[in-house]
Amino acid sequence: MRLVQEVHAQIRSLERFVPLLGQAAVDEARTLARGLSEQLAGGVIWNVNSTAVGGGVAEMLHSLLGYARGAGLDVRWLTIGGSPDFFRITKRLHHALHGERGDGSPLDEAAHEVYASNLCRNAVELRELVRPGDVVLLHDPQPAGLAPTLLAAGARVLWRCHIGADETNEDVERGWHFLARYLDGVRTMIFSRETYVPARYRDGRASIIQPSIDAFSAKNIDLDEHTVRSILVHVGILEGPPPPSPRYAFVRSDDTPGRVERSADIIRLGRASAWETPLVVQVSRWDPLKDMIGVLRGFSTMVHNHAAPEVDLVLAGPNVRAVADDPEGPAVFEAVYRAFLEQPPAIRAHVHLAMLPTADVEENAVIVNALQRHAAIVVQKSLHEGFGLTVTEAMWKARPVIASAVGGIQDQIEDGVSGVLLRDPNDLDTFAGELHRVLVDRAFAERIGAAARERVRERFLGVRHLIQYGEIFGRLIAA
């Protein structure tokens, strides 16, 4: 079985952005794409990461590559494979670049041997596809070690780091030291925040691009109340029976009809939530840095300490057996489940742990869409966050968002204007108080929700993102 797999990116038209951003912005993107295509002279832009499902990088690639292809560029997407030990090491690197210890394993020469030997096998397959002069954009630590081989083969290589820490510590330094032998020869790097750039690469090679969302993807398309309710009843989050509904629940990226067929795996003490019950929702990977346990305990604190209307909590993430590059998922879900069991029955009756189906990427996306749109509050109480795509998604849906003031989230939300920032994500009393405030002050919730949508329209949609990438690619090719 081949380690390297190609992921199909459905062609998408930039014209759909005209009503949101105006014709001039779309024309600028098209003009840039034409010029870049001429510079490439038949070359290909390859994107390489470790998974096509689960997490923000995969979501962005599905959309951005679709629009780039629609603009006439030959862009393609490859995923790499590896052993369980390889993904354990890359997860350790993921934590290290966030400033965390993860499993605490040493990033030593034995780790280098596992990391490099796995990537060597991938490189053999990549060399069959990548030609001299092609552009290769490597995403995050998993494929970073491919850079020397690809550079030696004549490819133009960039590295895109979607994660980082605002402050350095021993683990951050350890992570960058591990990657340095593979990345020091890469002359173009892209980060989400200036503070994420390590000192050794503050030599002119780093550019900053903030991530974006696709307003027209299944994750973010407008859904009417009837469709939202039908989807959430079908997957088991809301109690049913489902209302009469059209045969197809949503439109796929290729403009064909789609329908939610699968259900979620849900752990709860009592019944599914009623349609009328407000939901506090966090959607993320089952990753310790997302602090699902802290959300659960903060919700419990709110119920105990504040008089509030009846409210339910939904903690939702991908099915833990479905994300190949995240070996921690099952263990983290188990830890969240144990924290759930620690709560008294009166709390557990209002908590729902949902593993969402991921076999169909767009089906999963539209389920998340419906859940976010139905939420009274969307939470992202991360301990570290490169950039919170779930935050931007909820803001686009005009939901009031409560999120930690960490990483890129600080660039997304204006505290008290387009959301609520938690200065200390470990302060559960403050978190509980903010949950209560937003639940009971509906005028405030609606005001910050409306401001959030406008902020996303102005700053975090995909056309801006594509233009920035195109400018960087153009400079690299011309150098």
From TrEMBL:
GO terms for molecular function: glycosyltransferase activity. The keyword Oxidoreductase does not apply. Its EC number is 2.4.-.-. GO terms for biological process: glucose metabolic process. It comes from the Bacteria. Residues 47-198 form the Trehalose synthase N-terminal domain. InterPro entries: Glyco_trans_1 (IPR001296), Trehalose_Metab_GTase (IPR052078), TreT_GT1 (IPR049438). Residues 368-455 form the Glycosyl transferase family domain. Keywords: Carbohydrate metabolism, Glucose metabolism, Glycosyltransferase, Transferase. It is an enzyme of class 2 (transferase). Belongs to the glycosyltransferase group 1 family. Glycosyltransferase 4 subfamily. Homodimer. This is Glycosyltransferase. It comes from Polyangium jinanense.
